[in-house]
Every structure is written in C-alpha cells, then in structure tokens.
Design brief:
The chain has about 180 residues and is α+β, with helices and mostly antiparallel strands. The protein has helices at about 5-20, 25-40, 40-50, 55-65, 70-80, 90-105, 120-135, 165-175, 180; strands at about 105-115, 135-145, 150-155, 160. It has a four-stranded mixed β-sheet with strand order 2-1-3-4, with helices on one face. The radius of gyration is 21 Å and the shape is elongated. The N and C termini lie far apart (about 50 Å). The relative contact order is 0.11. The model has no long low-confidence stretch (mean pLDDT about 90). InterPro entries: ATP_synth_OSCP/delta_N_sf (IPR026015), ATPase_OSCP/dsu (IPR000711). Belongs to the ATPase delta chain family. Its main location: membrane. This is ATP synthase subunit delta.
Amino acid sequence: MQGSKAALRYAKAVISLAKDKNLTKELNEDMGLINETISENDELRTFLKSPVIKNDIKKNALLEIFKNVNPVTVEVFKLLIENNRIEILSLVASKYRALYNEMNNVQVAKVTTAFPLTPALEAKIQGKVKELTGNEAKIQNIIDESIIGGFILRVGDIQYNGSVKAQLSNLKREFKNNAYVSKI
C-alpha cells in the first residue's frame, strides 16, 4: 500500500510524543474517529488526495470536521500538510491504533459472520480466541453473507475458518477425490 512506510514513521513519532505527554489514550480515541470518518467518506478521501485543493483549505476543513480533537492531533494535521502528506492521514491513524494496541497488549480479533454477532455468540468466539491464542481480544465484526453461516476468525496471523461455505467446499473436494462417488 502506497504511503504505508511513511504512515508508520509518522505514527511512531506521534505515539512517542503522546507517551511523553501522557496522552496515548486520548490520541487513540482521536485516531479512531479520524480513521472511521475518512474510511466511511469517499468525498473526504478524494478531497484530501486532491492536488488542486490548497493546503490551507484542507487544514481548515479538517479543523472544522474534527473540532473536538486533542491539540496534539491538530499538530499532526499541520505536520502532514506541511510535508504534503495529508492524503495518508487515515493510514497514520490506523497505524497509530495498531501501535497503541500492541503497546497495551490488546489483540484485535476480526470475526466475519453472515449476520451481526449476538452477545452469546460473541462470548463463544471470545472463548475460541482464548483457546487459540491464550489471550482475550477486542472483537471486530465484519458481515459477509456469502459465508452462509458459521464464522471466520482472524487474530494476528492465526485464522480459524468455521464457515458453512468452507465446510461445503471441503465436502465437495472430498467427493471429487472419492473414486466411488466421482464415477456416479
């Protein structure tokens, strides 16, 4: 992904500054808001990437959109604008959150389901996460109706696929490999 290395460098600098000022939690909340707002708004992403729009207009727009953020976050906006890197703001925010979670030993478990998680199902998945990793994790639910049922769990580089779609695919493969069934 373009700008990923630069975003990581900026995020490391921001988290270092946040540690010094004892503001890591506040900035993590700001970065979550920034990342969510930009990723959900195509117009804002296009606006930030546009080379035609002047940096002052971008800065004023960001200050208006994110009125209640910490002054350190405002300085991040200014720094990225000065260095002509404002288009990677969302990526910087995402990298900051990953560094924050790593610093606080918080794992994020991405759970793909065909429907929104219920509290009972979330508890079962939390048990599976504990079984696979030995730790608890924040659960992020992704809805994908194509998996039919069950769930796909990703924690770090560990993946557990308990979806109906995967089970049907495995069954199909077994039938194809079975000499008796494939002749029918």
